[in-house]
């Protein structure tokens, strides 16, 4: 999106956001060693005439700090200083900061770490420059998960490289849902059937299980998680929100059928609803907390939850038999909306070739294996093969669930107007979920809004 296509109020907001970024960056380049905003990833090389690269990114949320270590390794090997500028952990603020800095061309960034949904906007807006060379196209064609590769290609060019990815998984209470009785759910209807079966079982009446309020916990709070769950519901029904040609089709019969699954799961069914009220107020962390508290049989969440659940299971090892939760993980029974982050070269960077080398290193096969070992879902298939030490040591159940879900994952709509798209989805679906009518009228109203938003109005 170029400055000419941005309404005046957006330009003013972007300028204000840029001033905030500039102030933070200026403060962090001083002598305060405790600043978290920017830090060198290797000893300075400027005394010998070496270049200095700046990478803008959100925090490394892994417990291992593996992303920063990968940057340091490259910097040391190339005798280049890489300064890491940490942006806000709030996704909307982070995007605004990056847009403002890159539009002004005075942010000094060489590499930017983008959410997968921002790449089209930044490419169309001239904020990033295409990556050159077969090392990138070959990796995308031969090793990167297809849905992740789709997020970086636009108008016949490669604009970024997937760094890490994210995909929905289905966690479940293995102690309450023995495989011999419940099996592995293959569909939304299977989840509903398992919930109804548990509601009528003797296990439901046990004191240890009285906290169970719903079959499934997911993220239906008004934020990006709601957009993800909306897309997955529509895909479950065989429909789409926006088709491959960019046409809004959320008002089609299959799309409405998918949205109806969310409504009926909330409003009806057995004495134990498939979706409880807590999902309407939940994001990733709060839904995980409710699940650990024993309030549902299943949880739709991202790979980060796997380690948290294993920790929770270990901490309960001393509890009496019959009161110790045991957690399992399966592939999501439907296509997951892909998450993750892409690395791109900032427009105007004076170090384009070096920035491309850094990106090639951070997204290479060895780096992706190390990312997986450090707790991230990798963007490359090869990181999950038996040849990878991390894959060989991983829990087979988790590895199989991750592979299967990534194989079937789908990218969210690639549009320079994604911010408007997700706002409209969240507004409309929140109203629908708190209402009493069918999905049809809400889908029609959403379609009308999206046709305007995706045209830039």
How does this model look, in words?
It is a single chain. The protein is an alpha+beta fold and 457 residues long. 44% of the residues lie in helices and 14% in strands. It is built from 18 helices and 14 strands. It has helices at residues 8-28, 66-78, 91-104, 119-124, 134-142, 146-150, 179-182, 188-199, 224-236, 253-267, 284-292, 304-315, 352-362, 365-373, 389-393, 396-408, 418-433, 439-453; strands at residues 38-40, 52-57, 81-86, 111-115, 128-129, 153-154, 157-158, 161-166, 169-173, 214-217, 296-301, 327-331, 339-346, 377-378. The strands form three sheets. Strands 1, 2, 3, 4, 5, 8, 13 and 14 form an eight-stranded mixed β-sheet that branches. The two termini are 13 Å apart. Mean pLDDT is 87; it is low at 1-36 and 42-49. InterPro entries: Bact_solute-bd_prot1, SBP, TAT_signal. Residues 1-27 form the signal peptide. This is Extracellular solute-binding protein. Belongs to the bacterial solute-binding protein 1 family.
Largest β sheet strand count, sense and barrel closure: 8 strands, mixed
Q: What is the CA-CA span between the terminal residues?
A: 13 Å
Q: What's the CATH H-level superfamily name of the largest domain? A: Periplasmic binding protein-like II
- How many individual β-strands? 14
Shape designation: globular
Helix content bin: 40-55%
Calculate Rg over CA atoms: 23 Å
Number of structural domains: 2
What would the average pLDDT be, to the nearest integer?
Answer: 87
Q: What name does the CATH topology of the largest domain carry?
A: D-Maltodextrin-Binding Protein, domain 2
Q: What is the beta-strand fraction?
A: 5-15%
Low-confidence stretches: 1-36, 42-49
């Amino acid at each position: 999106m170029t400055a000419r296509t941005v309404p005046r109020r957006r330009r003013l907001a972007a300028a204000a956001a840029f001033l905030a970024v500039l102030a933070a960056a200026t403060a962090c380049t001083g002598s305060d060693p405790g600043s978290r905003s920017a830090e060198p990833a290797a000893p300075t090389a400027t005394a010998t005439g070496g270049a200095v690269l700046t990478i803008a990114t959100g925090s490394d949320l892994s417990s291992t700090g593996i992303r920063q270590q990968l940057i340091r390794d490259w910097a040391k090997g190339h005798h280049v200083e890489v300064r890491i500028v940490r942006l806000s952990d709030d996704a909307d603020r982070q995007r605004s900061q990056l847009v403002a800095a890159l539009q002004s061309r005075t942010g000094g960034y060489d590499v930017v770490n983008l959410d997968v949904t921002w790449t089209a906007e930044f490419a169309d807006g001239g904020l990033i420059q295409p990556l050159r060379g077969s090392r990138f196209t070959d990796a995308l064609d031969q090793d990167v998960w297809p849905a992740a590769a789709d997020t970086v290609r636009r108008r016949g060019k490669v604009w970024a490289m997937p760094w890490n990815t994210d995909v929905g998984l289905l966690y479940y209470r293995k102690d309450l849902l023995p495989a011999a009785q419940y099996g592995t759910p293959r569909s939304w209807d299977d989840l509903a059937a398992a919930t109804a079966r548990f509601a009528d079982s003797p296990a439901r009446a046990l004191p240890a299980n009285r906290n169970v309020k719903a079959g499934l916990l997911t993220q239906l709070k008004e934020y990006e998680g709601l957009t993800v769950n909306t897309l997955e519901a529509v895909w479950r029904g065989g429909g789409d929100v926006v088709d491959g040609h960019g046409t809004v089709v959320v008002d089609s019969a299959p799309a409405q059928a998918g949205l109806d699954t969310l409504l009926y799961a909330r409003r009806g069914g057995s004495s134990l609803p498939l979706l409880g009220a807590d999902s309407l107020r939940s994001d990733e962390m709060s839904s995980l907390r409710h699940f650990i508290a024993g309030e549902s049989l299943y949880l739709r969440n991202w790979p980060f939850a796997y380690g948290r659940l294993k920790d929770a299971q270990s901490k309960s090892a001393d509890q009496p038999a019959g009161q110790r939760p045991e957690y399992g993980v399966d592939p999501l029974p439907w296509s997951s909306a892909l998450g993750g982050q892409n690395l791109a070269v900032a427009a105007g960077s004076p170090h384009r070739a070096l920035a491309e080398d850094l990106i090639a290193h951070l997204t290479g096969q060895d780096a992706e294996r190390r990312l997986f070992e450090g707790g991230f879902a990798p963007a490359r298939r090869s990181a999950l093969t038996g040849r990878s030490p991390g894959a060989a040591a991983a829990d087979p159940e988790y590895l199989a669930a991750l592979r299967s879900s990534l194989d079937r994952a789908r990218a969210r709509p690639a549009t320079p107007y994604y911010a408007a798209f997700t706002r409209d989805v969240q507004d409309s679906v929140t109203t629908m979920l708190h209402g009493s009518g069918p999905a049809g009228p809400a889908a029609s109203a959403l379609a009308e809004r999206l046709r305007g938003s995706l045209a830039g109005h």
